[in-house]
Automatic annotation (TrEMBL):
Pfam families: Phage_tail_fib. It comes from the Bacteria. This is Phage tail protein. InterPro entries: Phage_Tail_Fiber_Structural, Phage_tail_fibre_N. It comes from Candidatus Avidehalobacter gallistercoris. The lineage of its organism: Bacteria, Bacillati, Bacillota, Clostridia, Eubacteriales. Residues 4-143 form the Phage tail fibre protein N-terminal domain.
């Protein structure tokens, strides 16, 4: 099987109109694009062509840009909507305002199915055209053809966010933050030890619980006084009032001859 090559050629009609535009100074208007199935087979386009072998769709042009690497190359984009299809795209062309063919290209077999809605149902084709003077060409552009619905946008965003390579800068920042947080975490046992050490250091500090320490000191002095009163042995006269004699004093009690006192 012979090798299949793919290219874009400017037609004889297109070349003649470009020359005419250069001489007159009037722009050469390109307004539409079309695709075909090539008559069911691969073929190489020729400058003599004036139409596609079998056209299956015609529509407006979505965008046209000068190639960054070649000022004489134009990148022309057109989009086949999701609700048409059921055929294989093998050829495409650009048409001027009179229906004349500026350029034609062949394409690898591309199936175009019919979808009700959705970004996946669209088929975007970009034709690369090299001309001697791109400045004489003027394209009727419809940028709204590249717009998407809210559903399509949400789907595209979801697919992007799910990609493992999306938001690499944010992923790196989050990973750094997580690693830093993990490095500063403690296990439960480590946390318990730190709390225990902190409590001990506080409780044994000279300035800790000053009010409690003052209250305890007051209690100590009062307990000592009670111990003297209650626990001491009475070997002398404990009374604060003494009498030189008992004349004129009436008391009732038991006389302790050994101690020389009346006990009550």
């Amino acid at each position: 099987m012979a090798e299949q090559l793919y290219c874009t050629v400017v037609t004889d009609v297109g070349s003649a109109k470009i020359t005419q535009a250069i001489q007159s100074g009037d722009p050469y208007m390109i307004v539409n694009a079309a695709v075909g199935d090539g008559g069911g087979a691969y073929y190489m386009p020729t400058p003599a062509q004036t139409e596609l072998r079998r056209e299956v769709w015609r529509g407006q042009i979505a965008a046209c840009e000068i190639d960054q690497n070649s000022p004489n190359m134009l990148n022309v984009k057109f989009i086949i909507p999701p609700d048409v299809g059921g055929w294989t795209v093998r050829e495409a062309c650009l048409l001027d305002i009179d229906g004349g063919m500026l350029a034609v290209c062949n394409l690898p077999d591309t199936q175009k199915a019919v979808y009700s809605v959705g970004t996946t149902g669209k088929l975007t084709i970009v034709m690369h055209i090299v001309v001697t003077d791109a400045g004489v060409l003027q394209f009727e552009i419809h940028p709204e053809l590249e717009s998407v619905s809210r559903e399509e946008m949400n789907t595209a965003i979801a697919m992007h966010d799910a990609s493992p390579t999306a938001h690499s800068d944010l992923r790196a920042q989050i990973d750094t933050t997580i690693q830093s947080a993990i490095a500063n975490f403690y296990t439960k046992d480590e946390t318990d030890d730190l709390i225990s050490d902190a409590i001990y250091a506080h409780d044994t500090g000279a300035d800790a619980h000053g009010d409690v320490r003052a209250g305890v000191a007051g209690l100590d002095s009062r307990v000592s006084a009670l111990e003297v009163i209650v626990g001491g042995g009475i070997s002398t006269n404990p009374f604060n009032v003494t009498f030189l004699s008992l004349s004129g004093v009436t008391v009732t009690g038991v006389w302790n001859k050994t101690q020389g006192r009346i006990e009550f």
